[in-house]
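#struct-pred
JK: can someone run the complex with flavin-adenine dinucleotide? inputs below
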Amino acid sequence: MGIRTGRQYLQGLRDDRAVYVSGERIRDVTAYPPFQRTVTTLAELYELQHDPAHKPVLTYPSPTTGEPVSTSFLIAETAEDVARRVAGEELRAEATFGLMGRLPDFMNAMVTDAAVAAAYLAQHQPQFANNLVRYYEYCRENDLCLTHTLVDPQIDRSKGPAEQADPAAALHRVRETDRGIIVHGARMLSTLAPFADEIWVGPFYPRKAGEEPYALCFAIPIDTPGLKFICREPYDTGRSRFDRPVSSRFDEEDALAIFDHVLVPWERLFINGDIEASNSFLVHGAGYALLQATIRGVVKLRFLAGLACHLAEAIGRSAAPHVQAQLGELVAKVELGNGLLRASAQDVVAARREGLSLRALAAALWVFIPETQMRAAEIIRQLSGSGLIMTPTERDFDNPEIAPFLEQYLQGKGLSARARVRLFKLAWDLIGEQFGSRQLQYEWFYAGDPIFTRSRFYRSPVVDNYKQMVMRLLETAN
Ligand SMILES: Cc1cc2nc3c(=O)[nH]c(=O)nc-3n(C[C@H](O)[C@H](O)[C@H](O)COP(=O)(O)OP(=O)(O)OC[C@H]3O[C@@H](n4cnc5c(N)ncnc54)[C@H](O)[C@@H]3O)c2cc1C
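RT: done, structure tokens with the ligand placed:
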């Protein structure tokens, strides 16, 4: 089949999926008003692949059919291949201003990583490795959109899933049948779930002996019987694009994924209780998912830096030295991000060729990007003052009784009141409103807890080199 059109993508979402919002089951997610504008954004991304101006960047010929398929499925062996992945993913991230963390690209990249890791899995269970490669090809050829869920419910984090008061709460294998395994329990979160074709359940936390029923990896269609998604409140409340410039288009949704005695067919199972495979599977990928997340994060930083500069200029503060220092700090950090992105792409090439570790990529993703997103939001708040809050609605501007006052009192430096308010509304939607607060929470946690992930750097072998340097100085000081 190859790349889908926007219409084909939308058609695929009209199935028997069990998606709940505010206590109501949503029969057609494409027609539900709070979801409609986000599914339109996603459909536009599918459509973009058919645009002759972008098709060469966004697609490559399928190794099995020769038909165009998304570059986010490319198993990149060379520097040129990795550059193709970066170009395609950067284009889609730019199209959404870096605001959708779980663009289909992300899971396409993760499934491609999994296909690379299949070589490792084959040493454990060859039939599951074959399943994985076939599944990757299926996603690639059908241009599927996936959600994923890796984390057990946050009930009592001081204990593993088997030690919880209710050991049946976390997703686990209940029994095996001739058709597959029956699983039951929940995982959280599952971003993009209402808008996806399939769900990927993967390993994330290290599992230990006794947790075999929880050590699972599989993928099934969203409309599989027994699978239910309970969504958080949507942030698109139907307000105009003027009033909510980003939540009206980019709310990718998050859901609790509930598996109520769900059948996972044998051919969709990739890990079934193998603790060692579950714990080491992810590190045998190629780093494509991490690279996609880094690209998306850096694109968003560019957008935030641009926005901060506009805000300062709109209120005539951009000449103040301390404001320039804050803006300069952000722009410099974007440059660091761009550099880390280039180094990350090289890391991916080197890792494929020589088995080196993905240190620059990991540093970008686990340390630099979450911290810089937080810092950018802080700078935007600090330099905006009350402008972030005093943002009347589009309907206020449409009321002739008050519009002239707004035009007079809310104008900016060389900007009409409408243009100035529009800018600050964008900033508030992006960092303050429900959508904005969720963005910050997402940026901090989506790749795991950055406080804990960064401790891996202290444990990395390179630390010995740094410590030896100190000893070298001390030895020559004698
Ligand atoms: C908006 C959003 C979207 C997400 N989307 C997805 C998705 O699509 N798919 C998916 O699989 N996951 C998703 N996640 C979940 C994400 O993977 C987790 O949030 C992340 O792994 C952290 O786990 P947690 O939320 O359970 O927090 P916890 O791990 O419970 O952390 C909570 C607190 O406990 C502390 N803590 C953690 N570990 C320890 C420890 N060992 N000792 C002491 N303190 C500790 C942390 O520092 C933190 O302060 C999403 C999260 C967010 C916020």
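RT: quick notes.
The longest helix spans residues 321-354.
Residues 287-460 form a domain with the Butyryl-CoA Dehydrogenase, subunit A; domain 3 fold (CATH 1.20.140.10).
JK: thanks, will look after standup
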